[in-house]
């Protein structure tokens, strides 16, 4: 036994170069299997971490609490105890969730002296650490903090008294008597947008959306929950916010975490406590991506591993062919089949076993590089049992491949082993080719029938294999034809090249391997390039601007005012999004400040001037908006009136509120002034028009004929009644009213109505129909119509007119509506159907010229930023998504395949080189000039490499054209079919250049063998 080991080790040392090649190929084969298992695990963990890390805090946090009548809902202590019990029974839940933050609040009316306003009285755990306080932090009941901003509005000082009357939980509820507290400190938030504040709108100093007559203060903070619950009938919200530790969630615990959350939600409901979280949905989304990786990466790895094993088979076969005389002599000296087999395979098996730990280290190292380059930061490389199994599997597969290669050689007789003529392909090889073709055909059929099935992913390597077999056969046919033609014509170069190609079956195998490798690389490169462009396009389409901030705002116009205050340069714009249900899904409606669109919006395929043209169409010229205050006077000359019950009113609207008809008086014949107070318009109201009708009572006929001479209110006046475009009868408001207007120096009005609603003379500061840009067609049965009705910012449908049709609307997609926010608000406020703010999503879009501290400025303006998105961040996240990580593996497989193929070509040049050198030397002695030999060798390699390159590129392109339209290039569950060919094909060009350079280097190295073909080699007799 020791003698056999010594012979084996001497053989490895004697054939050091060939042994190193076997070791290298076996190491790469094992590394491929290990890297597949390790990369799959790391990629799944990366997707999970990214999904949780970049999801909004409001989605991943767990909010435990209750809302309702103060006396009926659990206290914070009970809620905390419920959480403690859950954490004790669910350690995975406790491990992955952060420190809880307890909070409680109630809305109420605060009074200071003779003035007051609405505000939340709130308790929030450890709030003082997150505030800048002038004065002291409250420590006991009866002490509060008031914001410096609200204090300046009311002239408050530290030590002042403030009282609160809590809002009842229902209209029938009886509010508690006012409770008085002492202001012990004035505060300003250190960072109004930090995660600590959660999704709460604590800092919203300004006009109150629900009660325009009131001012809304920033939140008043108290140090104890009991102050919030003083009024038993008050509407109180208590909650404990528990943030997620996204980097702590590991792959194995994710299902348990989701199950624990569902279990806790069910048990908490029995205690009257609700669980509000989107974490379960986020975990489900991550699981979907993980499943996608588990069905793509292993399938992609199959052809790579098979190629590695086939290359190993070729290497061992070539080395065994080179050693056939040794095996022949061994048999002549009496070695039996078993002993000869051990003699023939011992070296190979030893090298393959040695390659297992080396391959495992290499595979883990490549995965470690991937975690730093393409995966989420901090993703670990785990040494788990599947990786060990993969390493053992790679070693066993390599041993089987080596055994088959050596076994084929050992089956020959002694005379066949001693011959120097290469063996011919037998029926077994043909059977193997037939099996491969049958498998390829099944994969291609599966790809055509169901391009989304995992087996269809083998279509690309299947096409590559077919191309390789065809190219190998084509080369053999071309070589035979070249040999016959050159023989007839007497061209020595062609005879030599054709003879070498036609009599060497290894050349056909090299062509097949090289074709497959080039095809895989080209397919992976095209996939990576189009995926890169698709991700870039998706980021631009999805985000819509350089930065997008999700914010809290009371109503649309308040957001517009705050944004203009924060960024007076116009490089930021207010945006409101609505998602009404239509057809089989939701329609994205986006209202934007169109005056800033050209500076802010990133609209793929459109220039700034084109965007400005669209923006101009969205805001048609109308009359200027009139702001009225305090009171209004209408001077009118009444020619006739049916009775003394016909009333005249002013229709006005406070920001964010429905219109209100403020009475001005009852019409009487003759010229008179009609004056009324405009309640709630101290800060300004929008003038909508003049209404005429009965004050109340029976539905008698209303008839009146009059001329309106002038309208004045708080310094604002309307004198231009000659412009018919400024005034119109609002027939939609009172359909049974017959109202006609006559423009002139005075506005003539003739009314005859039996409608119970007042007839309205509308002041046209907004178009009748909302101009919109649509994608996906008009939102009606007639998708091509240019006018339709659909809800916008209003709860009821409003008329819309299409000014442009596009394929995609930024941040809206292929089924969306874009309109001007101010125009839509004006129309909604006129009809009094402005949607509930809870149904509106408020955003601020920022262009490249927006202030760097825009978030801080928005916070100072009372607009809390809940989340931030940017094109760069979205692109970075997409670059770590499941489809991209799969494409990375495609590209890795392609490059590794090319490396293996180059090794095979070099194998053909240097394994058995002594025999080739002997032939070259013989030809030189026979009179063949060295230049002819060089041309013959160059022609030989040009045929091998040229055919493989052309066939490989063609197969790679064909596979990309077939498969890429069915591959999700951007996100799991996203759209397929839109393949952006012709973009930045960086990877493709790099791969082509690298392939050509590698082939050129192979030819240069192969040509160097000629320099060793000297006549004295014949004297040595070495072949």
How would you briefly describe this protein structure?
With 1023 residues, this protein is α+β, with helices and mostly antiparallel strands. It contains 27 helices and 35 strands.
Give a verbal description of the structure.
With 1023 residues, this protein is an alpha+beta fold. Helix content is 47%, strand content 21%. The strands form 5 sheets. Strands 1, 2, 3, 4, 5, 6, 7, 8, 9, 10, 11 and 12 form a 12-stranded mixed sheet that branches. Strands 31-32-30-33-17-14-34-13-35 form a 9-stranded mixed sheet. Helix 23 (882-910) packs parallel to helix 26. The longest helix is centred in the first third of the chain and has 44 residues, at 279-322. The radius of gyration is 41 Å and the shape is elongated. Mean pLDDT is 79; it is low at 207-213.
Q: What key phrases describe this protein's structure?
A:
21% strand, single chain, 1023 residues, nine-stranded mixed β-sheet, alpha+beta
């Amino acid at each position: 036994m020791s003698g056999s080991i010594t012979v084996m080790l001497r053989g490895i040392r004697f054939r050091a170069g060939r042994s190193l090649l076997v070791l290298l190929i076996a190491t790469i084969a094992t590394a491929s299997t290990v890297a597949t298992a390790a990369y799959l695990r790391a990629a799944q963990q990366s997707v999970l971490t990214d999904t949780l890390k970049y999801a909004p805090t409001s989605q991943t946090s767990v909010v435990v609490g209750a809302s309702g009548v103060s006396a009926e809902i659990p206290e914070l202590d009970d809620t905390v105890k419920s959480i403690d019990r859950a954490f004790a029974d669910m350690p995975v839940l406790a491990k992955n969730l952060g420190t809880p933050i307890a909070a409680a609040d109630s809305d109420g009316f605060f009074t200071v002296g003779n003035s007051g306003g609405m505000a939340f009285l709130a308790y929030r755990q450890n709030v003082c650490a997150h505030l800048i306080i002038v004065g002291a932090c409250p420590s006991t009941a009866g002490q509060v903090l008031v914001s410096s901003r609200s204090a300046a509005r009311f002239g408050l000082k530290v030590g002042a008294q403030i009282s609160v009357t809590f809002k009842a939980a229902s209209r029938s509820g009886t509010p508690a008597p006012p409770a008085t507290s002492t202001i012990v400190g004035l505060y300003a938030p250190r960072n109004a947008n930090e995660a600590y504040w959660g999704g709460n709108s604590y800092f919203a100093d300004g006009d109150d959306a629900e009660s325009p007559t009131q001012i809304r203060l920033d939140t008043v903070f108290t140090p104890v929950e009991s102050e919030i619950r003083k009024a038993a009938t008050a509407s109180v919200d208590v909650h404990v916010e528990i943030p997620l530790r996204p980097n702590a969630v590991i792959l194995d615990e994710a299902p348990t975490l989701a199950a624990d959350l569902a279990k806790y939600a069910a048990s908490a409901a029995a205690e009257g406590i609700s669980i509000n979280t989107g974490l379960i949905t986020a975990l489900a989304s991550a699981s979907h991506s993980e499943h996608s990786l588990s069905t793509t990466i292993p399938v992609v790895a199959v052809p790579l591993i098979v190629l590695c094993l086939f290359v190993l088979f070729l290497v061992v076969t070539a080395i065994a062919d080179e050693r056939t005389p040794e095996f022949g002599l061994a048999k002549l000296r009496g070695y039996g089949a078993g002993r000869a087999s051990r003699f023939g395979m011992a070296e190979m098996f030893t090298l393959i076993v040695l390659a297992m730990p080396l391959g495992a280290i290499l595979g883990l190292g490549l995965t470690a590089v991937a975690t730093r380059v393409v995966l989420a930061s901090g993703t670990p490389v785990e040494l788990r049992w599947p990786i060990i199994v993969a390493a053992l599997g790679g070693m066993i597969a390599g041993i089987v491949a080596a055994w088959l290669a050596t076994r084929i050689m050992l089956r020959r007789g002694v005379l066949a082993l001693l011959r120097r003529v290469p063996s011919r392909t037998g029926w077994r090889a043909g059977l193997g080719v037939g099996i491969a073709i049958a498998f390829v055909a099944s994969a291609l059929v599966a790809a055509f029938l169901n391009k989304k099935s995992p087996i269809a992913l083998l279509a690309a390597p299947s096409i590559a294999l077919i191309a390789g077999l065809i190219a190998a056969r084509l080369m053999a046919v071309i070589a035979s034809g070249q040999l016959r033609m050159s023989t007839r014509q007497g061209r020595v170069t062609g005879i030599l090249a054709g003879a070498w190609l036609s009599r060497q079956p290894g050349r056909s195998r090299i062509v097949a391997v090289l074709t497959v490798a080039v095809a895989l690389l080209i397919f992976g490169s095209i996939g990576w390039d189009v995926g890169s462009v698709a991700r870039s396009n998706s980021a631009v389409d999805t985000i819509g601007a350089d930065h997008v901030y999700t914010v809290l705002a009371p109503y649309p116009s308040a957001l517009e005012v705050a944004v203009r205050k924060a960024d007076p340069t116009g490089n930021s714009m207010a945006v409101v999004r609505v998602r009404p249900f239509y057809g089989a899904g939701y329609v994205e409606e986006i209202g934007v400040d169109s005056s800033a669109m050209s500076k802010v919006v990133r609209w793929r395929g459109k220039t700034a001037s084109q965007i400005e043209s669209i923006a101009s169409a969205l805001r048609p010229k109308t009359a200027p908006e009139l702001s009225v205050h305090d009171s209004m006077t209408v001077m009118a000359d009444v020619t006739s009136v049916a009775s003394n019950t016909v009333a005249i009113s002013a229709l006005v609207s406070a920001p964010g509120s429905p219109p209100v008809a403020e009475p001005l008086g009852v019409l009487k014949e003759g010229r008179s002034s009609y004056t009324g107070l405009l309640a709630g318009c101290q800060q300004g109201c929008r003038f909508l028009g003049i209404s005429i009708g009965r004050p109340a009572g029976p539905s008698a006929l209303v008839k009146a004929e009059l001329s309106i001479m002038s309208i004045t209110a708080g310094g604002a006046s309307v004198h231009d009644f000659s412009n018919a475009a400024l005034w119109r009868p609002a027939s939609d408001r009172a359909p049974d009213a017959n109202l006609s207007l006559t423009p002139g120096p005075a506005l003539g009005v003739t009314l005859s109505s039996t409608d119970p609603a007042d007839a309205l003379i509308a002041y046209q500061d907004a178009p009748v129909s909302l101009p919109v840009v649509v994608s996906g067609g008009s939102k009606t049965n007639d998708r091509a119509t240019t006018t339709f009705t659909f809800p916008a910012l209003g709860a009821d449908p409003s008329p819309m007119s299409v000014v442009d049709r596009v394929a995609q609307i930024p941040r809206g997609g292929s089924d969306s509506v874009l309109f001007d926010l101010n125009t839509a608000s004006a129309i909604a406020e006129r009809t009094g159907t402005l949607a509930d703010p809870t149904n509106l999503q408020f955003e601020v879009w920022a262009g490249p010229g927006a202030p760097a501290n825009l978030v801080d400025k928005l916070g100072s303006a009372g607009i809390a930023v809940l989340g931030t998105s940017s094109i760069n961040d979205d692109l970075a996240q997409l670059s770590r998504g499941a489809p991209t990580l799969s494409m990375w593996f495609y590209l890795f497989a392609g490059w590794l395949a090319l490396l293996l193929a180059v090794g095979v070509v070099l194998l053909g040049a240097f394994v058995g080189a002594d025999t080739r050198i002997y032939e070259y030397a013989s030809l030189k002695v026979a009179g063949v000039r060295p230049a002819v030999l060089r041309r013959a060798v160059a022609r030989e390699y040009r045929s091998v490499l040229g055919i493989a390159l052309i066939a490989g590129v063609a197969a790679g392109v064909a596979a990309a054209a077939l498969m890429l339209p069915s591959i999700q290039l951007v996100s799991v569950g996203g759209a397929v079919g839109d393949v952006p060919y012709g973009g930045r094909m960086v990877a493709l060009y790099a791969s082509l250049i690298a392939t050509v350079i590698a082939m050129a280097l192979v030819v240069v190295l192969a040509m160097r063998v000629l320099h060793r073909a000297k006549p004295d080699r014949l004297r040595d007799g070495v072949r």
